[in-house]
Hints:
Blueprint: E1 4-14, H1 18-29, E2 34-37, H2 46-49, E3 55-56, E4 65-66, H3 67-78, E5 84-86, E6 91-96, E7 101-105, E8 108-117, E9 123-126, H4 134-137, E10 144-145, E11 158-162, H5 166-174, E12 181-185, H6 195-206, E13 211-213, E14 216-224, E15 227-235, E16 241-245, E17 248-251, E18 255-258, E19 269-270, E20 273-275, E21 287-289, E22 294-295, H7 303-321
Parallel strand pairs: 1-2, 1-8, 2-5, 8-21, 10-17, 11-12, 11-17, 12-13, 20-22
Antiparallel strand pairs: 3-4, 6-7, 7-8, 9-18, 14-15, 15-16, 19-20
Amino acid sequence: MGDVNQDIKDVTIIGGGPTGLFAAFYAGLRGVSCRVVDALPELGGQLMALYPEKYIYDVGGLPKILAKDLAKNMIEQGTQFGPDIVLEAEVQQLVSEEDHIRLVTGRGEFLSRTVIITAGKGALNPRILECPGWDAHAGERGGAVTHVRRPEDFRDKRVLLVGGGDSAVDWALGLQGIARELTLIHRRDQFRAHRASVVQMREDAAAGKLTILTPYEVRNIHGDNDCVTGAVIFENATGEERHLEVDVVVALLGFKPDLGPVGQWGLELQRNSIRVSPLMETNIVGVYAAGDITHHDGKLELIATGYGEAAVAVNNAVHYLNPKARVNPGHSTNLKVFGQDEGEDS
Ligand SMILES: Cc1cc2nc3c(=O)[nH]c(=O)nc-3n(C[C@H](O)[C@H](O)[C@H](O)COP(=O)(O)OP(=O)(O)OC[C@H]3O[C@@H](n4cnc5c(N)ncnc54)[C@H](O)[C@@H]3O)c2cc1C
């Protein structure tokens, strides 16, 4: 058993994507204490992990917004009441005890009176390269990695980026002037990334700032003393191989959705989702769910739906915690918590 954090919260939200962040906002609005736990190193869920540079057009009141900007706004709104934020902590177990629920994570244990599961598609595990040499060199010290956390770690290195989405193209731009040599390979000729970034990247390649090779894939990675020294790549149309001397291979291939530990918590599941009542209750008392992780009749996996479900889940959790508290919070335009002097907050 890990360390137990004794600061028991009224509401703990598992997953800091858009639904979890809106739930954190709502918990603050209702005046209950709150903690958000996420497996990833940053908040924002799929918006930040999968498509930060894509425009979203179907969030009410925002005709067009980049996913990363929506995430930024959601983080500002969701953290305004000061919830405890615990990142890089996948919740592995959820255990109902006498008057609280215990959450077991790799970063210790947390106690909560209620839980709202907003875990989306589950833990978003980065896809790795399925080729010889990856496992032997995986990790920042070895040189086969799935993310760029600090660009400075790549200073003066020969870097091979693999991928064709937003993060591959973003780092093909972002590591210029830092990496000594920069090569991007992708298994298709077309990139699935923000068009302006692709245009910029191709212009930079024409100016000799990086090398783009398509349609290429990695055949193997090799090195000395656990450190990468090179990779063999091949043109997938012809099979023709090339050897590249590189110090780091960065696989930017997106994330693999995996319900992960959520499936082991005794929740009633349907089609890899958690079955919920119209009040967003699960089959476990005190445990609610909202957002992409839920299933109910008429379910739509959309950000807008997640917001509504988060509000329903939090308001019912508040009523469960204090049966005298109304489920309906009233309108934010009237709430004292926002400095309005009409209406009641509880
Ligand atoms: C490419 C793409 C484009 C999209 N475009 C749109 C669009 O235009 N409009 C729209 O409405 N929707 C769009 N969506 C869908 C939208 O992103 C999702 O509906 C939304 O992200 C769901 O939010 P969520 O908070 O429920 O889950 P998520 O965003 O998936 O967040 C869940 C969070 O829970 C965390 N988590 C999971 N398991 C655990 C665990 N055991 N312990 C701790 N943390 C855990 C994850 O790390 C993640 O951060 C798009 C999706 C994709 C992939």
